[in-house]
Each structure stands twice: as structure tokens, then as C-alpha cells.
Amino acid sequence: MRGSGRRPGGNRRVAKGRGTAPARPPEPSDGTPTVPAPQDLQLDRRFFLQRMGLLTAAVATGSAFVPPDLAAGLPPPVRRPPRLPDPRSVQAVQPWQMTLAELAGLVKARQLSPTELVDVYLDRIDRYEGLLMAFNTVTADAARAAAQTATDAPWEGPLHGMPLALKDNYYTQGVLTTANSYIYEKFVPDFDATCWAHLRDGGAILLGKTQMGPLATTRATTPDGHNTTVNPWAPHDPSVSPGGSSSGSACAVAMGLAACSTGTQTGGSITDPSSRQGLTGLKPTMGRCSLHGIVPLTYTRDHPGTLARDARDAAIMLQAMAGPDPSDPRTLGLPPVPDFTTAAEPVRTGSAVKLRWPTTIGVLPGYLEAGRGSGGRGEYGRSSRGLGQRERARRRQEAQVRAGSEVAARKAMLSTFESLGARVVEIPFPDDWETLTASAFNNVRLPERTEPFMDALRKDVRLFGVSLSPWINGLLLPAPEYLRGQRAKLLLLSRVLDGIFSQCDVVVQTEPYPFDMIGLPLIAFPIGSEDSRGFDLPVAGMFGALPFGEERLLAAVAAYQTVTDWHRRRPPEPDLSAGNHNLPAPPPARGRVDIHHVMEHGE
Amino acid sequence: MDASRTPELTDDELDAYIHGRLKMAGVDLSVLPEDDSSAPADRKGILAGARRFLRSTPAAILAFEPDVQRVPPTLYPAARSVAVRKEGNHAG
């Protein structure tokens, strides 16, 4: 690592300067078309707060609120069709092992039909679903019918004929949408969530709806808290968390049961399961994707996103999902959707892979010290309450081994980024960091989840099953405290912009907080493995970026994944033979979470 | 940022607040078992969680005293705060 607290590279500083032109990206020598400077360079950090103050003052004084047309000052985005991998490069790989981009290349070349692809995934679901419990609903017949239609139709784009798994809080017309909750256990929507409608219009096929934490809290469980989805890296041990709450969406992609999946994130629910299952999970900026037709959890913090095999797949998904939606005012008046898929294509100078844009990576204190999480939270279902001394000691030993592996992986990851041309700088925590990111300010979200569910709360609190506690607590926070929490969010954003992003383009993160609180984009991606429990589990890195910095995140991780293979590693195929007694029984024998876990680990 | 001005509340005081608020909102916890750790939720656990929440959260938030003129409440800090720059002219 070089330097400490230094400002980022010259190009970026020039680009941010008042009255100067944005930095030009390096021209690749292999003829790769370039895309304009990433959107985070075109949006001026120094005016964020001034603008926000004007807007919120207008609201506070009752003035007419006109959504800002943030798109007005940006050049119209230039998009081109994505360059898909050469089908010859994947001939030795089974379809279920391929990335979505690789599959799209085969489908485009008519070397693989959507019908064949759907059958591949349905066969694997038939084989493994009883063990993994990734799905709530498998729409096999409808998927086969849609695949036949796609097979007969001309190729429309990278999602053409791609079988996807959707988290079960996305509305799907005519298909049960339960959010793993008693409240929605018989709910069949009469329209599609906007994000799913965009994916479907791009040619995607619904393969099924995935298991999740009840109402998007905790790891995937039944509504009353019994664990369902297992981590496919350790299917024999249900105490190894699959991550939550998009547990089934991650499992489906990690095990090759779907080409890609969607999730939602309010407090780590995309990045956490992605981290635990070796996937690339992208939580976009608040407003980048519509939340219309998604079961709400927290109005100001819910984010739709994707859990993918790699950054290129995530870019293809986001390209379809993003954009303004008249049904969701959070998406209106924002910067236009840029060319994510081109941003996530590798750039080479000669034979060397380079970052698409000059990028400075900020490293916060403690990141290279043992003991910081790999982008997740505590082990759901691994409470230490009631354990004996020997077991506690064993778990401490495991934690030390895991922490050592995580630090080694982080150092190697940063070194790899330096070899790609990144600058890595140490930066201190911004002022008031500990206060503004404390759990009290995180708890400000709770009234937002209570309000839309008041009817259900008044009807019968048992409908909330194991998730009831935060809904009750949300009822108890007085309005002045709630509003003061919203002020704290603005101050926290100003600290992040001035204290972090004045010195770097992306910043390492170990937890989804506080970026989830203030709506900034995050990406989690695999960077190593560890075997503290006697079997390999993925180790993840996580980057955060400026508002609308998804291109930056995708470009950086895509370059990293061009020179590493952690994202290529898949869980071992489980031994399902009758003689293998090392497999978990169905719930309730897989353990459970309780109300304390839900309150502590959130969503 | 000083939380010391908020007095410590007793369990009885907190329970009175919790029950009053729930009654005002029409939310009935009596349908839950009183004390059953095997149930998805029980009254004892819910009330204990609510007391912990009330002891930890409101006071810590009120101890934060921002300049109300400079730090307005903001629901969507990232999405609604971006100014746009265009060839030296700031649209914001």
C-alpha cells in the first residue's frame, strides 16, 4: 500500500475541478470501444449537499416540491450491444457452470437453445432442491413454455432465453409471492414488479421464486423461524449460514440452478449472501432501480439488485433492471442509465489487463487487521448462548483462523488491484463516524417497516411469525427521534463525501452499514477462501462508491475477475447417494432463528 | 453528543409506555404465549426487546444535536442530492 491520506490520482482531480473537462478514459490498444467517463465523475460531489439542502428546505416549508431533473446536465448515454464471450472459449464447460454472458453467447450463436438450457436447470433443481431448499416455487411448466417461445424467436439481447430466479418478494403476475411470511402466504399478484417486467421484456425466463428471510429479515427460514436454505458450500451443516435475506437467490446461482437471480437489500441482504456463497452481488444506488411491485421492508432503504456469477453478469442484469419508473417516485429525475455492460468488459493495453478508468481505492482503519467481518454479520443460527467452555473455545479458534485468512485475502486483493493500475491509499474514518453509524441511527429505519404493515399488526401479530420484534419496536420510536435520524443521514452523507470520497473513488467496506443507510452503491465479490471449519468457504471483498457509481464498481471488479478465478469456483457437487448419512433432514431439523437473532441481525 | 440528560427508566415505566402505545395503535400482544422460547414470538421476549430498544435508541438519537438550519431531515440522501456538472456550468 502506498501513502496515507493522499488525494486520488491526477486525472480524477482534474475531472472534479470546477470548470474543467472530465477525465478521458485510457484508450485500449485492442480496439475495445471506450465509454465516456463514468457517471460518478460527471456528478459533482461538492454540490451534493447544497442541492440537497435546497430540496429539503422546500419540503420543510411546504413549498411546491419539484423533483430535480438531475439528468439535464449529463450527456445522453451512449450504449452499444454487449460483447459476449466467444462460444469457443466455453466448449469444455457444462452449461450450468457458465456465466450468464457465456450462456448468452451460446444462445446467440444457436449452439444452445433456451429450451435445452431450461431443462438443464430444471434437472438440477430436481436433483438438489430437496437438499438445498433454494426455492419456494418452481415454475417449471411456464418456464418450458417460455423457453420454447424464445427458442423459436430471433435473438433479442443477452437476456434472451436466460432462466432467472427471483426473490420471493418480487411480484410475479399469476405466481405465488409469499416473502416467506404468513401475511403473504396466499398472495398471487396481478402484475409484475417493474424490475422483473424489464428483465422479462429483455427475454428472461422465470424459473422460480426463491427462499428468503421472512419479510426480508434474517437468513431464509419458514415464517416461524425454522432454517430452510443451506449454504451450498456446506450443505451438510445448516449452522453455516447461507447469508440473508436473499439466501435462496444466492444458493440458486451458486449451485447452478439458475443463470442469475434478483435480490433486495435493506441491510446487507444482497452483499451478505453473495459474500457467503462466492458470488458477485450488486446493490445499486437508491433510485437506480424501481421498487414498485416489491414487498416493502423499509421505504427509504430497500434496494433491488442482483446476485450474479461475476461483474459482467451483474452488469447485464442491472442494465435491464435500472431506469425511471412513473410508479416509483424514488427513480424519477435521476441521472440516465449509463452503459453498464460495456463498463464491465475487460480492457487490455497490449496483453495486460488494465482498469477501465484511473481508480483510487480507499482503505479504512482496521481493514487489514484480523477480526473484521468478510462483508457479513454474525452467524445466523449459531448463537453462543448456552454453550460450554470447550465449544466456545473451539469457536474462538475457528474465528481466529477465519480472520487470518480474511486479512491475507484482502492484502492479496489490494495487491492485485495495484497490479491493474489502481492506487491504494489509507484514509481515516470521517468525523463523528462512530456516532453516526451506531445502531441507534440504524434503528431509525424501523418505523418505516411498521407503517405499511399496520393493518396486519392490528389484525393479528402472529402473522409476523419470528420477525415480529422490529415491527413492534418501529411502533415505539417517536416522530421527533425519527426525523432527527433523517438529519443524521444527511450529516453522515456529508462526512462520507468529504471525508472518504475526497480521497478515493471506491472504498473498502466490511459491513453494509452505513452505505445502506444513505443509499450508496455496494458490490461484494469473492477474493479467497478459508477452511476454519474443516471445509472451504468463500471470503469476500466489498467496495462502496459515490452515488451512481455502479459503472466504477463494475469496471473495477470486472478487471479483477479477468486476472483471478475466485468467482469461477463453485461449491462441490453434493453426494446424494443413499449411503451418505451426512445430509441434513428437512426443517425443523435444520435449526432455527429466534426473535433475538432477527432483532440483532436485521435484514 | 451527550446522552446523560436522559434519565434511566424503570421496567415499569417502559412497560407502561409500550402497553399504552400498543393500545393506542390497536395492536394486541395478548394473543402471543406469555413465556415460550419455542414459539416464534412470545410476550416476554417481545417486551424485553422493546425495553432494550427504548433504552438504547431514542436517547442516543436525541443526544445528537445538529444545526437544524444546516442539516435538514433527508429521506434519500444519495438519490436526491446529486448536482450535475456540465462543461463548467453547474446545473445545481
Topology diagram in text:
The complex is a heterodimer of chains A (603) and B (92).
Chain A: H1 10-16, H2 39-42, E1 43-44, H3 48-60, H4 100-108, H5 114-132, E2 135-138, H6 140-152, E3 163-167, H7 194-201, E4 205-210, H8 247-254, E5 260-265, H9 271-277, E6 280-283, E7 303-308, H10 311-321, H11 340-343, E8 347-349, E9 352-354, E10 360-363, H12 389-419, E11 423-426, H13 433-436, H14 439-442, H15 446-450, H16 454-459, H17 468-476, H18 479-499, E12 506-508, H19 515-518, E13 522-530, E14 537-545, H20 550-563, H21 595-601
Parallel strand pairs in A: 3-4, 3-5, 10-11, 10-12
Antiparallel strand pairs in A: 2-4, 5-7, 6-7, 6-13, 8-9, 12-14, 13-14
Chain B: H1 11-25, H2 43-62, E1 83-86, E2 89-90
Antiparallel strand pairs in B: 1-2
Helix pairs in contact in B: 1-2
Please summarize what this structure is.
Chain A is α/β, with parallel strands linked by helices and 603 residues long.
Helix content of chain A: 25-40%
User: What is the overall pLDDT average of chain B?
Assistant: 83
CATH class of chain A: Alpha Beta
Task: Report the end-to-end length of chain B measured between terminal Cα atoms.
Answer: 33 Å
- Report mean pLDDT of chain A, rounded to a whole number: 88
CA gyration radius of chain B, whole angstroms: 21 Å
Task: State the CATH superfamily name of chain A.
Answer: Amidase signature (AS) domain
**What is the makeup of the main sheet of chain A?**
11 strands, mixed
Q: Per CATH, what is the topology of chain A?
A: Amidase signature (AS) enzymes
Strand content of chain B: 5-15%
Largest sheet of chain B: 2 strands, antiparallel
Q: Domain count of chain B, please report it.
A: 1
- Got a strand count of chain B? 2
Fraction in helix of chain B:
25-40%
Give the C-alpha Rg of chain A.
23 Å
